[in-house]
Amino acid sequence: MDGPLMGKDTSTYQSRNGRKTPFHIFLNDARLIFKRDELGLEIAQIALPAALALAADPIASLVDTAFIGHIGPVELAAVGVSIAVFNQVSRVAIFPLVSVTTSFVAEEDAACKMMSTEERGNENLEEALPLSSEMKNLPSHLDSGNNEYHPFIAFENQNMAESRYERRYIPSVSSALVIGGVLGVLQAVLLIFAAKPLLNFMGVQSDSPMLNPAQQYLTLRSLGAPAVLLSLAMQGVFRGFKDTKTPLYATVAGDLTNIILDPIFMFVFRLGVSGAAIAHVISQYLMSLILLLKLMEKVDVLPPSIKDLQFSRFLKNGSLLLVRVVAVTFCVTLAASRAARQGPICMAAFQICLQIWLTTSLLADGLAVAAQAILASAFARNDRDKAMATTSRVLQLSLVMGLSLAAFLGIGLQFAWRLFTKDVKVMQLMRIGIPFVAATQPINAVAFVFDGINFGASDFAYSAHSMIIVAILSIVCLFLLSSSYGFVGIWIALTIYMSMRMFAGFGRIGSASGPWKFLRN
Questions:
Q1: Distance of CA 45 to the CA centre of its chain
Q2: Percentage of residues in the chain with pLDDT exceeding 70?
Q3: Which pLDDT value is given to residue 172?
Q4: Contact by Cβ (8 Å): 276, 262
Q5: For 183-204, what is the mean pLDDT?
Q6: Which among 8, 92, 304, 370 could disulfide-bond with 46, CB atoms 3.0 to 4.6 Å apart, if both were Cys?
Q7: CB of 218 within 8 A of CB of 195?
Q8: What does the alpha-carbon distance between residue 397 and residue 33 come to, in Å, rounded to a whole number?
Q9: Structural contact between residues 318 and 104, judged by C-beta atoms closer than 8 angstroms
């Protein structure tokens, strides 16, 4: 093996299993799935806060949905369409930015720590073996000639030297903040001026009663786009540092503010759906401010010069993920559009089911975040043992989590749907959607974790290309099934879509290709 061993529990994949197909990585050390060893604790420390942070915002959206549902089904459907537009447009910028930032920061942080460790070792050697005066006078950049083994040479020597201090400069941090701020402003401008055409595209026509409340909500919520992009870029930075607790605290503070302000603006000030949007915008700016203050304690966010920003690296890999997220976005947006075209009742039921579906499924994204951060660091260190052990563990945990969520939702939602609406027709459609929401949880969990694994291995090209194929097939299914079977057809198509995403992840590791070629040995 090329990397350091993880210990007897996770580092003897080949010695115990001999020559086996790469698919055996999914069953490797399955008896250790809940073991509290070094790897298990590292995954838990990253995944649990990340999952709570990821679930907090959809939970806040569920609270919004519950409040708005008591205003009326038209308003609920209108906000559902607006949230779908805002979220899908946001994902076009957010997902590539956050994913690339997490991987780059994890790699650069690992590089800093490796260089810092080597420098400390050199200092200890100098103390033990005093150098001659000629050696002491050598230029500093010739002192550590054995640094060539590390692939991330983009750091200057002075930046590496700073890694021994608490605050340091990491190029990807500054780059992510600049890109996030610019994209946030562009998104706000786009959504404000193109709100009506976008809603028309979603099936909300000029004569629809949903148009006015949907346009009001979308326009006001768009004012928070810069804060959303900046806060999520900073969450990507903290994930790269394997710190998911700070984003959790900031997210909880923001979402509690949203939940408190919702009834005040909506019912006390009688602003209706506009009040819900204003409360959400305030919470996003609060969240962004908290994260920025905490980040400034950890790193120098201002680059020494414009040349130190890594725009080309972000754009190269981010463009691949942009293609991928456009494909993902189009599938989900099309599903919402097909529901909206069937009327307010269908859209209201779809919005509630979709919010529950996304909220619970995103719990698996906590494992995906842990997989990405740990794997990016492991690949940077060329530690193949840890890469294999981490991949096996997170896949096994994702399957257990998905099965648990399926059981919980299948039972719990039979009694809880009245929290979201009192409309009898909406509840009738929800009874049809709930079995799909519950049954797809294991598929969703494994698919999301595969995303984290691919990003941790910096396998952005495969993620983009495979998603394009999945999206094309899913779009065909959405049109055919929604036309023939209506609401049920939409959920069958979404199930097919997530299943294909899961199999695409299996295919990469199972074929031992790309960054996983070493599994053939």
A1: 17
A2: 83
A3: 87
A4: yes
A5: 92
A6: 370
A7: yes
A8: 7
A9: no
Core vs surface per residue 125-154: b (16+ CB within 10 A) or e? eeeeeeeeeeeeeeeeeeeeeebeebeeee
Q: Is 503 exposed, middle or buried (0-12, 13-18, 19+ CB in 10 A)?
A: middle
Sketch the domain layout of the chain as residue ranges: 34-136+145-520
**Average pLDDT score over residue span 356-383:** 85
- Owner of token pair 């404000």: 192
Q: Give the range among 93-97, 260-264, 274-278, 469-473 with minimum mean pLDDT.
A: 93-97
At residue 147 the predicted structure's pLDDT band, cuts being 50, 70 and 90, is very low
Please report, as a single letter, which amino acid is at residue 315: L
Residue in the structure block whose two tokens are 């709930």: 434
Residue 392 predicted with pLDDT over 80: yes
Q: Is the pTM of this model over 0.85?
A: no
Place of tokens 């204003």: 278
Alpha helices in 18-163 (DSSP H): 38-69, 73-128, 133-136, 157-162
Q: Provide the sign of the torsion angle of the four alpha carbons 235, 61, 470, 371, taken in this order.
A: positive
Contact partners, residue 3, CB within 8 Å, separation at least 6: 378, 381, 382, 383, 384, 385, 386, 387
Is the backbone of residue 374 left (phi > 0), alpha (psi -120 to 50) or beta? alpha
Comparing C-alpha atoms, which of 303, 110, 94 is closest to residue 181?
94
pLDDT above 90: percentage of residues in the chain: 34
In the DSSP assignment, the letter for residue 382 is: T
pLDDT score for 424 = 81
Rounded CA gap, 497 and 491, in Å?
Answer: 10
CB atoms under 10 Å from CB of 164, counted, come to: 15
C-alpha 22: how far from chain center: 26
> What pLDDT sits at residue 374?
93
Q: What distance, in Å, lies between the first and last C-alpha atoms of the chain?
A: 10
Measured between alpha carbons, how far is 154 from 166 in angstroms, rounded to an integer? 21
In the predicted model, what is the mean pLDDT of residues 16-23?
A: 52
pLDDT confidence of residue 156:
42
- The Cα–Cα gap between 105 and 373 comes to 9
Q: How far apart are CA 360 and CA 17, in angstroms?
A: 35
Whether the per-residue pLDDT at 388 is higher than 50: the answer is yes
Nearest Cα to 219, choosing from 198, 200, 193?
193
CB burial class (10 A; 0-12, 13-18, 19+) of residue 428? exposed
Q: How far apart are CA 441 and CA 478, in angstroms?
A: 20
Tell me which range, 38-52, 118-132, 281-295, is most confidently predicted by mean pLDDT.
Answer: 281-295
Per DSSP, the residues of 434-497 read HHHHHHTHHHHHHHHHHHHHHHHTT-HHHHHHHHHHHHHHHHHHHHHHHHHHHHHHHHHHHHHH
Q: What is the pLDDT of residues 277-294, one digit of tens each?
A: 999 999 999 999 999 999
Q: How many CB atoms lie within 10 A of CB 297?
A: 9
Measured in whole angstroms, how far is the alpha carbon of residue 278 from the centre of its chain?
A: 25
Rounded-to-integer distance, Cα 366 and Cα 56, Å: 12
